[in-house]
Please model this.
Amino acid sequence: MIYKTLLFDLDSTLWDFHSAENYALTKLLEKQGVDDVEAYIDVYVPMNRAMWRSLEKDEITREELVETRFAKLFDHFGFEKDGKELAAEYEAILGTQGQTYEGAEELLQALRDAGYDLYAATNGITTIQKGRLSNSPIAQYFKKVFISEEVGAQKPSEVFFERVASAIPDYDKDKAVIIGDSLTADIQGGINAGIDTIWMNLAAKENRTTIKPTVEVRSYEELLEFLV
Model:
């Protein structure tokens, strides 16, 4: 066994975030009386992604992201809305969505059976992520779930990984690996922390960055073949 401690990202690694986000956005926008929901989603998704990248770089605060993204979205279409109020409504809806990719539960079962210690390490809002975990079949496989808002730092910061390491009994960074879909958050975070990294590239995207994972896999089968 190469590793002992597996740190799993959740969104777009095990969870189908695209489906969960699309459902929550659609319900929120319909509740707000939006006619062209798709037009709003087309603006929101890249804007939200850019804001999370800014958060990773400490260019904005978590509060700014959460409380302004929906106000900015509606402002783009010429409407004034209370971003904090919309954020609360969105969180309530998204927190019910725990969709996983096909094979995710079987993957975790196989890895646990193989003797690995499984942990989740996710950037996200505590209420949302805990709600989604309670509605997801994979929560049972993790010894502990680390959510950036609770940790007090987010991936890719070294502080995030230091706090995670301090909370794991007998943690050995030479036997730990971070597994995730995000080059900028998961893989760069692992590099910052001095641990190995596995890029879960399920979408078969081209790496256009200078960030180099220890290993790249494009399916759960490839991951199992590497680890078991």
Observations:
- The chain has a mean pLDDT of 96.
